[in-house]
Amino acid sequence: MASVYGDLDGDGEVDVFDLILMRKAVENGDTERFEAADLNCDGVIDSDDLTYHSEYLHGIRKTLPVEY
């Protein structure tokens, strides 16, 4: 079974709880364990990915990368 980008807590849903985990990881520099957080697929998990995730949750972006 493939994992879905944006689903950091592994519950099968991309939601605000994943965004909270991503924000904490970016703030603490602890991003290496969250491969699913690289939403813009540039090899770096940073504020750009946080923005991407937030835009997805607010309906601004209609899709996320499908799987990693």
UniProtKB/TrEMBL annotation:
Residues 1-66 form the Dockerin domain. Ca(2+) 2 binds at residues 38, 40, 42, 44, 49. Ca(2+) 1 binds at residues 7, 9, 11, 13, 18. CDD domains: Dockerin_I. Keywords: Calcium, Metal-binding. The keyword Cell membrane does not apply. It comes from the Bacteria. This is Carbohydrate-binding protein WP_009985128. It comes from Ruminococcus flavefaciens FD-1.
